Amino acid sequence: MSAPHPDTWLRVLPQGLYCEPGDFFIDPLRAVGHAVITHGHSDHARPGHGGVLATEATLAIMRVRMGEGAAGERQQPLGYRTPLDHRGVGITLVPAGHVLGSAQVVLDWQGSRVVVSGDYKRQPDPTCAAFEPVPCDVFVTEATFGFPVFRHPDPAHEIAKLLKSLTIFPERTHIVGAYSLGKAQRVIALLRAAGWDQPIFIHGALASLCALYEAHGVALGPLLPATGAAKDTLKGAIVIAPPAAAADRWSRRMNDPLIARASGWMRVRQRAKMAGVELPLVISDHADWDDLLRTVDETQAPEVWVTHGAEEALIHALSLRQIKGRPLSLVGYEDDEAPEETVAEPEA
Amino acid sequence: MTPFAELLERLVFTPGRLAKLALLRDYFTHTPDPDRGFALAAIAGDLSFTAAKPAMIRELVTARVDPTLFAWSYDYVGDLAETAALIWPGSRAGTAPRLSDVVSILSDTPKAALPAVVADWLDMCDASERLALLKLITGGLRVGASARLAKIALGEMAGVPADDIEEVWHGLQPPYGPLFDWLSGRAPKPDAAGAPVFRPTMLAHPLEETDAAALDWSAYRAEWKWDGIRVQLVATPQGRRLYTRTAEDISHGFPEILAAMEFHGVLDGELLVMRDGEVAPFADLQQRLNRKSPGPKMLKDFPAGVRLYDILFDGDEDLRALSFDDRRARLEAWFAHHQPARMDLSALIPFTAQADLAELRFGARAASIEGLMLKRGDSAYLAGRPKGPWWKWKRAPLTIDAVLMYAQRGHGRRSSIYSDYTFGLWREDGVLVPVGKAYSGITDQELAFIDRWVRAHTTSRFGPVREVEKGLVLEIAFDAAQRSNRHKSGVALRFPRISRIRTDKPAAEADRLDSLIARIPAGGPAKGEALVEEGD
């Protein structure tokens, strides 16, 4: 008997991607009985589930972000590469390289294998475990940057631009807008790798997540709260803040602030202009176009399902490689690098 | 190419003038010759390549990229050079060429060999460098800094007034070796003697109410502020030039003016389109300004002239230290002697008290007049914008509250934004009729607001145009209303711009067409124009 096609046991329901034999959802968009969570970004990790299976770091992130009560009634940590059998469905978590704790969910059922990759990237990132390709029958991928114009440069090059700007504008406070989970810590780690050893000032919304990263062995160096810091000490300093705060009234207390933004969208001038950014830094936690294609190749999957993003271009490009592409059009996955993010995180 | 590309990228995103200056200073300080000279030429618009066309770029890219993916990407990015720069396959395979090498190789390469040369360069560049390169070679470079700003930065770098650079500028060619030698202290100031170089212009401050109250009116002379563009006419035995007030050489666009400069001297005046001594609307002049070299029909239909108001040099005699009154006397004598074709004098307006002028300014609604100029009789001709000697007293703009009817996406950095608006007023019968279009006047935040509003309130689409619900009121400022047969409403506005968004006002309470028509000056010359005739 040949293995069942994945679309016979993995389906799209209004709540999200559903594994029928295992009776659980992966990154469900609303509260469900059983959820497997790929990573801690709020559109993938939603509150109010019954049971939650995820990596220990992802569970910790969920508790920090939504509070003990909302992060699932029953939390079950699962280490990377440790297969678990659940009602005959094999569940294995494999690093996705997106943010701390991020995992691809490898599902095995009756000889058929699906890899749900969540969000992922292939660039090196000292703040999380590196993506590992897993051969499979269906690879479920994002396509946030699913246009061939998105080809992320070396992040060290972008950090060098920031440091050079500090030599041209030594008085100005350089505020880097960066998503508070993942991007912020990565930018800090990149700055440390580039030799910036001065204290980095952080927005209140970042404090608990930075502490969590530190507790998981990611060294971030000296961090100080930006809120309440004297204007003088912020001269020529680097401040990291959620994008909405960086570009809003919060930044007025800084010294002639220069607003930077770390996001893959900064690659396109129009988008960077609309974001009102003075120094765009093309640093992304998502796979770029080349890496999307490379990853599909490495999984050797004959069929690819695209959860969200610019799926048309990716599916077209896959068809040129004789790979079957299918849009899942899951509505509800937001874009954690969007320049027009409007909701400010509360100050912790 | 690398430092130049970095500079361009930073300038594009940097709104502040001081910050732009800092970026330019940093670039000129750290970039070797002759690269910085070519960069300066690129900023000043003195570099132009014609062999590399956008079509060539498109061919290079589509030979390497799937056409569907390219088309979608171009749609998404909205700019050909940027799409090509981003989508170009492969990663940086070497070191980007130096700017000076790009310039010299481009001028030496036969057209047929160009695609291969450009493709090689693109392989060696990263995305920012590719974009700078493509914009440079196709002539689409938009620097986000003017030649003037670059000269100010150079002046700050070398401790030299920017006006000193201006005075030698037009005697030099890219990459301006003698200029950089002088600024670096390696050589004396280049000698521009006898060359038809630009002389820094004297500019006026806007007169605010507080200034007007403190003014000793009897010390000032008054002239109309003409609605053309300020020009400087320079004629020496070595040549003739027509410059804008920002030192841009526009000689080629106005051959009839050049032909009429049968004298040696430097004069200051207003460039206008004039038909039988009557000043045509600014839009007519704009037709001419848009053409680098006008054809015979253009010259006939839009004849240019200069209304003179100052003399800086008579022959090689420098008159700038003389008082305005003395220069005026020299100007009148000079004019009587030379009688140059296509030129006349801007008349002085006699007045005895501020009230006379206030009334004139209020009544000044002729299309050719923007307001009044006040110049101190005892003031020398000073470079720059010294406060006190010269004032411009523009007439106040008129405003109407109009209803947004259609929106269209803009160009360049506004290509993803609905930024061009058609607005209308209510007619007697309750129908909204369009009265004009506006593209400017609002901040980026307001632009973003209207863009969102348009997307959320679209009722139908015609290609790039969206029709919207009649629900958003815009306060439109304009200089004058004119009768027009080309508009359905019968009215055209001069210089319409958005002065604010009236979210507080229901559309039904926007202005009526009648109230705008009532503001069109009655037929015949406006009061102001009649006075000019008397003055002449």
From TrEMBL, chain A:
Keyword Ubl conjugation: no
InterPro entries hit by this protein: MBL (IPR050698), RibonucZ/Hydroxyglut_hydro (IPR036866), Xnuc_lig_assoc (IPR026360)
GO molecular function annotation: exonuclease activity; ligase activity; RNA endonuclease activity
SUPFAM superfamilies (alphabetical): Metallo-hydrolase/oxidoreductase
Entry keyword Ribonucleoprotein: no
Protein keywords: Exonuclease, Hydrolase, Ligase, Nuclease
EC number: 3.1.-.-
Lineage: Bacteria, Pseudomonadati, Pseudomonadota, Alphaproteobacteria, Acetobacterales
Organism: Acidisoma silvae
Domain of life: Bacteria
Enzyme class of the recorded protein, top EC level: hydrolase
Signal sequence annotation: none
Protein name listed in UniProt: Ligase-associated DNA damage response exonuclease
UniProtKB/TrEMBL annotation, chain B:
Sequence ranges assigned to domain ATP-dependent DNA ligase family profile in this UniProt record: 297-427
Catalytic activity field: ATP + (deoxyribonucleotide)n-3'-hydroxyl + 5'-phospho-(deoxyribonucleotide)m = (deoxyribonucleotide)n+m + AMP + diphosphate
Primary enzyme class: ligase
Gene3D superfamilies: DNA ligase, ATP-dependent, N-terminal domain, DNA ligase/mRNA capping enzyme, Nucleic acid-binding proteins
PROSITE patterns referenced in this protein's UniProt entry, alphabetically: DNA_LIGASE_A1, DNA_LIGASE_A3
Pfam families (UniProt xref): DNA_ligase_A_C (PF04679), DNA_ligase_A_M (PF01068)
EC number: 6.5.1.1
InterPro entries xrefs: ATP-dep_DNA_ligase, ATP_dep_DNA_lig_pp_1105_fam, DNA_ligase_ATP-dep_C, DNA_ligase_ATP-dep_cent, DNA_ligase_ATP-dep_CS, DNA_ligase_N_sf, NA-bd_OB-fold
GO biological process terms held by the UniProt record: cell division; DNA recombination; DNA repair; DNA replication
Keywords, alphabetical: ATP-binding, Cell cycle, Cell division, DNA damage, DNA recombination, DNA repair, DNA replication, Ligase, Magnesium, Metal-binding, Nucleotide-binding
GO MF annotation: an example: DNA ligase (ATP) activity
The name this protein goes by in its record: DNA ligase (ATP)
Organism: Acidisoma silvae
Origin organism lineage: Bacteria, Pseudomonadati, Pseudomonadota, Alphaproteobacteria, Acetobacterales
